[in-house]
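User: hey, got a sec? need DNA-binding MarR family transcriptional regulator folded
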Amino acid sequence: MTTQPVPGSPRPSSAPADRNAGAADPHSEVARLLARQHRTMHAVKALLSRGVSEAERASAMLLVTLAETGPVRAGALADAVHSDPSTVSRQTAQLVTRGLVERQPDPADGRAWRLALTAQGREFLTTLRAHRLALVHEVLRDWEPADVELLAGSLERFTDCLDRVRRELAEGTSPLLERPAPAPGGALPDPDPDPAEATP
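Assistant: Yep! Here you go:
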Protein backbone atom coordinates (compact mmCIF):
# COMPACT_ATOMS: atom_id res chain seq x y z
CA MET A 1 0.00 0.00 0.00
CA THR A 2 1.32 3.43 -0.94
CA THR A 3 1.64 5.89 1.92
CA GLN A 4 0.16 9.29 1.12
CA PRO A 5 1.92 12.42 2.44
CA VAL A 6 0.22 14.17 5.33
CA PRO A 7 -0.98 17.68 4.34
CA GLY A 8 1.27 20.30 5.85
CA SER A 9 4.18 17.91 6.28
CA PRO A 10 7.49 18.60 4.52
CA ARG A 11 7.81 16.98 1.13
CA PRO A 12 10.85 14.82 0.39
CA SER A 13 13.75 16.91 -0.85
CA SER A 14 15.09 16.37 -4.36
CA ALA A 15 18.59 17.19 -3.09
CA PRO A 16 21.14 14.38 -2.70
CA ALA A 17 20.70 12.46 0.54
CA ASP A 18 24.16 13.31 1.83
CA ARG A 19 23.71 17.03 1.21
CA ASN A 20 22.02 17.66 4.55
CA ALA A 21 23.41 14.69 6.43
CA GLY A 22 25.57 15.61 9.36
CA ALA A 23 25.04 19.34 8.97
CA ALA A 24 26.53 20.52 12.25
CA ASP A 25 25.59 24.18 11.87
CA PRO A 26 21.89 24.99 11.34
CA HIS A 27 22.92 28.49 10.25
CA SER A 28 24.68 26.95 7.24
CA GLU A 29 21.50 25.09 6.35
CA VAL A 30 19.46 28.29 6.63
CA ALA A 31 21.94 30.07 4.35
CA ARG A 32 21.78 27.24 1.80
CA LEU A 33 17.98 27.14 1.84
CA LEU A 34 17.73 30.91 1.47
CA ALA A 35 19.96 30.74 -1.60
CA ARG A 36 17.83 27.93 -3.00
CA GLN A 37 14.63 29.84 -2.24
CA HIS A 38 15.99 32.94 -3.98
CA ARG A 39 16.90 31.01 -7.13
CA THR A 40 13.61 29.15 -7.23
CA MET A 41 11.52 32.27 -6.63
CA HIS A 42 13.43 34.07 -9.38
CA ALA A 43 12.65 31.20 -11.76
CA VAL A 44 8.96 31.13 -10.79
CA LYS A 45 8.59 34.90 -11.25
CA ALA A 46 10.32 34.70 -14.63
CA LEU A 47 7.93 31.96 -15.76
CA LEU A 48 4.87 33.84 -14.50
CA SER A 49 5.93 37.11 -16.13
CA ARG A 50 7.09 35.97 -19.55
CA GLY A 51 6.98 38.93 -21.88
CA VAL A 52 7.39 41.38 -18.98
CA SER A 53 10.69 43.23 -18.91
CA GLU A 54 12.97 43.42 -15.88
CA ALA A 55 12.35 47.18 -15.78
CA GLU A 56 8.60 46.62 -15.50
CA ARG A 57 9.10 44.14 -12.66
CA ALA A 58 11.33 46.63 -10.86
CA SER A 59 8.74 49.37 -11.34
CA ALA A 60 6.18 47.23 -9.53
CA MET A 61 8.24 47.63 -6.35
CA LEU A 62 7.91 51.40 -6.66
CA LEU A 63 4.13 51.08 -6.82
CA VAL A 64 4.09 48.89 -3.71
CA THR A 65 6.29 51.38 -1.87
CA LEU A 66 4.18 54.39 -2.89
CA ALA A 67 1.08 52.58 -1.63
CA GLU A 68 2.79 52.18 1.75
CA THR A 69 4.36 55.63 2.05
CA GLY A 70 1.82 57.84 0.31
CA PRO A 71 3.03 60.80 -1.79
CA VAL A 72 6.80 61.30 -1.45
CA ARG A 73 9.60 63.05 -3.28
CA ALA A 74 11.69 61.04 -5.74
CA GLY A 75 14.72 61.07 -3.45
CA ALA A 76 12.74 59.68 -0.54
CA LEU A 77 11.30 56.98 -2.80
CA ALA A 78 14.81 55.99 -3.91
CA ASP A 79 15.87 55.73 -0.26
CA ALA A 80 12.82 53.62 0.57
CA VAL A 81 13.61 51.04 -2.12
CA HIS A 82 17.39 51.26 -1.53
CA SER A 83 18.07 52.17 -5.14
CA ASP A 84 20.00 54.78 -7.08
CA PRO A 85 18.04 58.06 -7.52
CA SER A 86 18.78 58.20 -11.25
CA THR A 87 17.41 54.67 -11.72
CA VAL A 88 14.27 55.47 -9.75
CA SER A 89 13.86 58.68 -11.74
CA ARG A 90 13.81 56.74 -15.02
CA GLN A 91 11.41 54.15 -13.65
CA THR A 92 8.98 56.70 -12.23
CA ALA A 93 9.03 58.61 -15.52
CA GLN A 94 7.79 55.44 -17.23
CA LEU A 95 5.10 54.97 -14.58
CA VAL A 96 3.95 58.57 -15.08
CA THR A 97 3.76 58.00 -18.83
CA ARG A 98 1.65 54.88 -18.26
CA GLY A 99 -0.70 56.81 -15.99
CA LEU A 100 0.09 54.73 -12.90
CA VAL A 101 1.87 57.53 -11.02
CA GLU A 102 1.39 61.28 -11.03
CA ARG A 103 3.46 64.25 -9.92
CA GLN A 104 1.87 66.52 -7.33
CA PRO A 105 3.12 69.87 -6.00
CA ASP A 106 4.77 69.49 -2.60
CA PRO A 107 2.73 71.57 -0.13
CA ALA A 108 5.87 72.08 1.95
CA ASP A 109 7.85 73.48 -0.99
CA GLY A 110 6.16 74.90 -4.06
CA ARG A 111 9.31 74.32 -6.12
CA ALA A 112 9.33 70.56 -5.45
CA TRP A 113 7.16 67.69 -6.61
CA ARG A 114 5.91 64.54 -4.95
CA LEU A 115 5.09 61.22 -6.58
CA ALA A 116 1.75 59.55 -5.86
CA LEU A 117 -0.29 56.64 -7.12
CA THR A 118 -3.15 57.39 -9.47
CA ALA A 119 -6.47 55.55 -9.37
CA GLN A 120 -5.20 53.47 -12.29
CA GLY A 121 -2.01 52.75 -10.37
CA ARG A 122 -3.96 51.55 -7.33
CA GLU A 123 -6.09 49.31 -9.54
CA PHE A 124 -2.98 47.87 -11.19
CA LEU A 125 -1.41 47.27 -7.77
CA THR A 126 -4.53 45.44 -6.61
CA THR A 127 -4.13 43.09 -9.57
CA LEU A 128 -0.46 42.51 -8.75
CA ARG A 129 -1.29 41.69 -5.14
CA ALA A 130 -3.99 39.26 -6.21
CA HIS A 131 -1.45 37.41 -8.37
CA ARG A 132 1.04 37.33 -5.48
CA LEU A 133 -1.58 35.99 -3.09
CA ALA A 134 -2.59 33.32 -5.61
CA LEU A 135 1.04 32.21 -5.81
CA VAL A 136 1.31 31.93 -2.02
CA HIS A 137 -1.93 29.94 -1.84
CA GLU A 138 -0.64 27.58 -4.53
CA VAL A 139 2.71 27.06 -2.81
CA LEU A 140 1.08 26.38 0.57
CA ARG A 141 -1.99 24.51 -0.66
CA ASP A 142 -1.10 21.31 1.25
CA TRP A 143 -0.14 23.05 4.49
CA GLU A 144 -2.21 23.08 7.65
CA PRO A 145 -3.37 26.56 8.79
CA ALA A 146 -1.24 26.27 11.93
CA ASP A 147 1.85 25.64 9.80
CA VAL A 148 1.08 28.69 7.66
CA GLU A 149 0.76 30.83 10.79
CA LEU A 150 4.06 29.49 12.09
CA LEU A 151 5.76 30.31 8.79
CA ALA A 152 4.30 33.84 8.78
CA GLY A 153 5.56 34.48 12.30
CA SER A 154 9.03 33.13 11.52
CA LEU A 155 9.27 35.15 8.30
CA GLU A 156 8.23 38.32 10.10
CA ARG A 157 10.86 37.79 12.78
CA PHE A 158 13.54 36.99 10.19
CA THR A 159 12.64 40.04 8.09
CA ASP A 160 12.74 42.31 11.14
CA CYS A 161 16.23 41.01 11.96
CA LEU A 162 17.31 41.42 8.34
CA ASP A 163 16.10 45.03 8.42
CA ARG A 164 18.13 45.58 11.60
CA VAL A 165 21.25 44.37 9.78
CA ARG A 166 20.42 46.70 6.88
CA ARG A 167 20.23 49.67 9.23
CA GLU A 168 23.50 48.73 10.93
CA LEU A 169 25.22 48.40 7.56
CA ALA A 170 23.90 51.81 6.50
CA GLU A 171 25.08 53.34 9.78
CA GLY A 172 28.49 51.68 9.55
CA THR A 173 28.06 49.82 12.85
CA SER A 174 27.62 46.27 11.55
CA PRO A 175 30.32 43.72 12.45
CA LEU A 176 29.89 42.41 8.90
CA LEU A 177 31.84 45.43 7.70
CA GLU A 178 34.92 44.06 9.48
CA ARG A 179 34.95 40.95 7.29
CA PRO A 180 37.21 40.77 4.20
CA ALA A 181 35.74 42.26 1.06
CA PRO A 182 34.28 39.84 -1.54
CA ALA A 183 36.04 38.96 -4.75
CA PRO A 184 36.60 41.67 -7.40
CA GLY A 185 33.34 42.67 -9.00
CA GLY A 186 31.50 42.95 -5.70
CA ALA A 187 29.24 39.94 -6.20
CA LEU A 188 29.28 37.15 -3.66
CA PRO A 189 29.47 33.79 -5.46
CA ASP A 190 26.85 31.18 -4.66
CA PRO A 191 28.73 28.53 -2.64
CA ASP A 192 26.01 25.97 -3.26
CA PRO A 193 24.86 26.17 -6.90
CA ASP A 194 22.14 23.83 -8.06
CA PRO A 195 21.95 23.50 -11.87
CA ALA A 196 18.52 21.86 -11.61
CA GLU A 197 17.09 25.10 -10.20
CA ALA A 198 18.54 27.45 -12.80
CA THR A 199 16.18 29.84 -14.54
CA PRO A 200 15.13 28.48 -17.96
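Quick note: The beta strands are 101-106, 109-117. Let me know if you need anything else on DNA-binding MarR family transcriptional regulator.
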